[in-house]
Design brief:
Elements: H1 2-28, E1 41-47, H2 66-73, E2 76-78, E3 81-82, H3 88-97, H4 131-137, E4 141-147, E5 171-175, H5 193-219, H6 226-253, E6 257-259, E7 262-266, H7 273-287, E8 293-298, H8 319-341, E9 348-354, E10 363-364, E11 367-368, H9 386-389, E12 393-396, E13 405-407, E14 411-412, H10 416-424, H11 440-443, E15 454-459, E16 462-470, E17 475-484, E18 507-517, H12 536-552, E19 577-578, E20 581-582, E21 584-585
Helix pairs in contact: 5-6, 7-8
Length: about 600
C-alpha cells in the first residue's frame, strides 16, 4: 500500500520531468513551419553560365531539358532568382557564405574579378563559414563534386588553405579551378592571349634576322663571325622553347581533377568528364544514404568551350552550346534518379540554380557559345543588368513545398545558406553580417512576401545597381548608377571584349541614376524620369538611403582577387609530377555511357 501511495505521489513529478524532456527535445530539433520533418538530405545542383531562358520550364521550346523540367513540375519555380554577382567566383562565394562577396574580399577592384590561376594565393578566406561547415558541425556528411573556383593554396603548392576540405566538405572530386578553352588541346588560350601573339611575332623576327646573317655570311655581303651567328641561333631556340613551352604547360597547369587532396588527372580529360561527375555523385549518394548528407554538384557545364561527349555532340538544334545544355540535363536526371532509387526523394531538399546569366560574348569563330537570357538585358559580367544576375532556380521537397508552383518574389542565391542551416538545425554565425534570408516560410506559402527589401548589385567591388522590393505594393524598383556600354543590337555584349568592364571609359555613370520598374518593365527597356514617374525622386532617395546604410556595414578586408593575391606564382602551382612537367592520369576512362 505504501509503495502504491508513493508511486501515485511520484507520478506528477515523473510526468513533469517527461513533459519537460519532451519540450526540450522538441525545442532543440529543427522546426519546419508546421511540418514534422527533421534534418532532410540536401542536394544542391549548380550550372555554370546557364542563361535564364535556356530551360524548357523557363520558356525555351527548342532545347530538350526534360529532367530539369520535371523537377520544376514537382517543385517551385523561382522567377525572381537573383545572383549576388554576374561572374562565377564572387557569385559562388556569396552562395557558399550567404554574404555579399565584398565582405570577404572576393570582389576585385580591377578588371580580373575572378580567380584567374590555379597557382595563386587568393581565395575564399579561412575565417569564412560556409553552409557546408555549418552542416558538417550538425553531423551531416558533406560532399562537393565538380567546379570549386574559390582558390586553392596560400604559401606552398600543397598547403590547400582554400581547398573545399578546409571549408566544411568531407569529400571533394572535381576541378579546383574552372573550365577554359585551355583545357581543350590546341585551342586558343584565354590565359595567355597576349604572350601567344608576342611569341609568334618575336619568332618570325628572329627567323628573319638569322636568315639575313646567314645569307650575308655565305654571299660575302658583310662580315660576321660564325660564333655570333651560332650564339644568336641558340638564344632564339631557347626563347622559342621558353615561350611556347610556357604556353603549352600553362594550358595544362590549370586543368586538373582532384580527389580530396590528390591530383588524379592533369590535364583534365574532357571526353568523359561528364560521366565522371555523374559517377561520383551517384557513388556519394549510395555511400551516404543511411545518414543525412549535403551534396553540392557543381557542373562544369555549360561554361565555354562547351565540350560535350560523343553521346550528345551534334544532337541539339543549337550547336555546341545546345549539346552542352542537353548533356547537363541528362546529368541532372541521372543524379535525381539515384535519389529516387535509394528511396530518398521525400526526405531530400533539392535545389537547382545557375551561378550567373548566359555569356553573350562567348564565341568559337562565328558560332555563339553562350546562353540565352530571354527578355532580360545583358549577361555574364555585366554588372547590374538583369540578364547577368537573374538566373533559373528550382526547389523540390515533396510534401513540404507545393508541386508545380511559381514563386514570383525576389530570392537570392545567398538565401540557400540560412535556409539549409535552418533545415539542419544549425545556428547562423553571430559575429558577421549574413545577407541571405531563410526562405522556407515563403517556399511553403506560409508568408506571401520575400524578406528581402533591398538587394545590391556589384561589378567587382563597384556598386552598379540596387533594387527595392516595395512589399506593400509588390513593386520592384531597380536603380542603376553605372552601366557597361553594351551593344544595343545583336548579342548585346561588349564589342571587341572578352568581358565588360566595371569602371573607366567603357562604362556610363548615371546622374541622376537610371530607374526601372521591373514589375512593369522587366526587360529594363524604358528608363523612368521625374516626368513619367511621380515616385521617381522618392524611390531614388529611398534606395540611396539603403545603399548608404549597406555601406556602413562593410568592413575593410584583404582583397583576394587583386594582385599580388590573384597572380600566378610557380611555388603555388599544383602539379602532378615534377614541375613543370605536370602530367598524370590515375583514373581509367569510362566506357559505359549508360551510367
Amino acid at each position: 500500500m505504501e509503495e502504491t501511495i508513493k508511486g501515485l505521489l511520484m507520478f506528477p513529478l515523473v510526468n513533469w520531468r517527461c513533459s519537460t524532456a519532451v519540450l526540450l527535445v522538441a525545442f532543440l530539433l529543427p522546426q519546419t513551419y508546421g511540418v514534422n520533418v527533421s534534418r532532410p538530405n540536401i542536394l544542391l545542383i549548380m550550372a555554370d553560365d546557364l542563361g535564364y531562358s535556356d530551360l524548357g520550364c523557363f520558356g525555351n521550346d527548342t532545347m530538350r531539358t526534360p529532367n530539369i523540367d520535371q523537377l520544376a513540375k514537382e517543385g517551385v519555380k523561382l522567377t525572381q532568382h537573383i545572383a549576388a554577382a554576374s561572374l562565377c567566383t564572387p557569385s559562388r562565394t556569396a552562395f557558399l557564405t550567404g554574404r555579399y562577396p565584398i565582405r570577404s574580399g572576393m570582389a576585385a577592384t580591377n578588371i580580373l574579378r575572378v580567380v584567374t590561376r590555379a597557382g595563386g594565393s587568393g581565395g575564399l578566406p579561412r575565417n569564412e563559414t560556409t553552409f557546408a561547415k555549418l552542416l558538417q558541425q550538425q553531423g551531416y556528411t558533406t560532399g562537393l563534386i565538380g567546379k570549386w573556383h574559390q582558390g586553392l593554396n596560400c604559401d606552398s603548392h600543397n598547403d590547400h588553405c582554400h581547398h573545399p576540405l578546409n571549408h566544411g566538405f568531407d569529400f571533394f572530386y572535381g576541378n579546383p579551378f574552372t573550365l577554359l578553352n585551355d583545357c581543350e588541346t590546341w585551342k586558343y588560350s584565354v590565359l595567355t592571349p597576349g604572350s601567344q601573339a608576342t611569341a609568334w611575332c618575336y619568332t618570325q623576327m628572329a627567323a628573319i634576322l638569322v636568315f639575313t646573317l646567314l645569307l650575308g655570311k655565305i654571299t660575302g655581303l658583310f662580315s660576321v663571325n660564325w660564333k655570333i651567328i651560332a650564339f644568336i641561333i641558340l638564344c632564339n631556340i631557347l626563347y622559342f622553347i621558353f615561350m611556347f613551352g610556357q604556353y603549352l604547360f600553362l594550358k595544362f597547369w590549370n586543368c586538373m581533377t582532384f580527389r580530396d587532396h590528390d591530383i588524379v588527372q592533369q590535364p583534365l580529360k574532357l571526353k568523359d568528364a561528364a560521366f565522371r561527375t555523374v559517377r561520383e555523385a551517384i557513388t556519394f549518394i549510395e555511400r551516404n544514404k543511411q545518414a543525412p548528407f549535403l551534396l553540392f554538384v557543381s557542373f562544369l557545364h555549360v561554361h565555354e568551350p562547351c565540350y560535350s561527349t560523343e553521346l550528345f555532340r551534334g544532337k541539339s538544334r543549337h550547336g555546341l552550346y545546345g549539346d552542352n545544355v542537353e548533356e547537363m540535363d541528362w546529368m541532372a536526371g541521372k543524379i535525381l534518379a539515384a535519389i529516387d532509387k535509394e528511396g530518398l526523394r521525400n526526405n531530400t531538399f533539392t535545389y537547382f540554380a545557375s551561378d550567373n546569366g548566359g555569356y553573350l560574348e562567348a564565341r568559337q569563330g562565328n558560332v555563339r557559345l553562350g546562353g540565352w537570357n530571354g527578355i532580360y538585358k545583358g549577361g555574364k559580367g555585366m554588372g547590374g543588368w538583369e540578364g547577368g544576375i537573374r538566373v533559373p532556380g528550382i526547389v523540390r521537397w515533396p510534401g513540404m513545398v507545393a508541386a508545380n508552383t511559381v514563386l514570383d518574389e525576389p530570392i537570392s542565391l545567398m538565401d540557400i545558406y540560412p535556409t539549409v542551416a535552418h533545415l539542419a538545425g544549425a545556428s547562423l554565425p553571430q559575429d558577421r553580417v549574413i545577407d541571405g534570408r531563410n526562405q522556407i516560410a515563403l517556399l511553403q506559402g506560409k508568408v506571401q512576401r520575400s524578406e528581402h527589401q533591398f538587394m545590391f548589385h556589384y561589378c567587382g567591388s563597384h556598386l552598379h545597381a540596387a533594387r527595392w522590393h516595395q512589399k506593400e505594393s509588390g513593386a520592384v524598383w531597380k536603380v542603376h548608377y553605372v552601366t557597361p556600354n553594351i551593344q544595343p543590337k545583336g548579342s548585346g555584349g561588349c564589342p571587341g571584349r572578352h568581358r565588360c568592364p566595371c569602371f573607366g571609359d567603357n562604362v556610363t555613370y548615371h546622374n541622376p541614376p537610371l530607374l526601372f520598374d521591373l514589375s512593369r518593365d522587366p526587360s529594363e527597356a524604358n528608363p523612368l524620369s521625374p516626368i513619367s514617374e511621380p515616385l521617381f525622386n522618392t524611390v531614388v532617395s529611398q534606395v540611396e538611403k539603403a545603399v548608404a546604410e549597406h555601406r556602413r556595414t562593410l568592413t575593410p578586408v584583404p582583397n583576394q582577387l587583386d594582385p599580388p593575391s590573384n597572380k600566378w606564382e610557380s611555388w603555388l602551382q599544383p602539379c602532378c609530377g615534377i614541375f613543370p612537367f605536370c602530367w598524370c592520369d590515375k583514373e581509367s576512362d569510362i566506357e559505359d555511357v549508360t551510367i
